[in-house]
Amino acid sequence: MLKKILIIFLFVLITANVIEAQNKKSDSSQVVDTVLYQKQGLLNNLSQITNPINFEKRLTQNPTKALLKSMLIPGWGQLGNRKYVKAGVFMAFDAWFVTSAFHYKKQANDYWDKYTNATEIAERNSYYNVYLDRKDSRNKYTWYSVIVTFVSMFDAYVDAHLSGYPKLEKEKKISWDVKQLNKNGAFASVSFHF
Description:
This protein has helices spanning 2-25, 63-72, 76-80, 84-117, 121-162; strands spanning 34-38, 47-51, 174-182, 185-192. It is α+β, with helices and mostly antiparallel strands. The longest helix is centred in the C-terminal third of the chain and has 42 residues, at 121-162.
């Protein structure tokens, strides 16, 4: 079992290094991949402006590498994306589900041993029912762990892609304005943005 895990781990690391090497070979600094349009009156008067900023150079990490890291340890890809709260949540849930699965596996094995050693039919039936319950709980928590891993993988992948996107400036939630209309009056407005 340990050999299989080690082989899978080495395969993932080699794959990540090959993908990273391929990404470094292609120089995308000359590629202009963003087209912006600036309004000048009506929609038919739009003029094209090219923006030479390459957002791929601003990524916190390679998206495929983030996916592979989260496949090994849920939350590791989020750490690379600098999403520390998400990383902690994914790691905590995965640790909870994995430890629960092992806990129920141990209990299922204990009840199986009691079932095989019991001599009375009622006692055997009772142990077997508890064994089935613990086995079902083990399977349930194993599936929860798998689901957390997949969600973590694709969340890390998407966050890595979006990390190079320019940040929007935060708008003030409440703003106010006062203008003088004439010598005797004024106009005041309060705005709430949501």
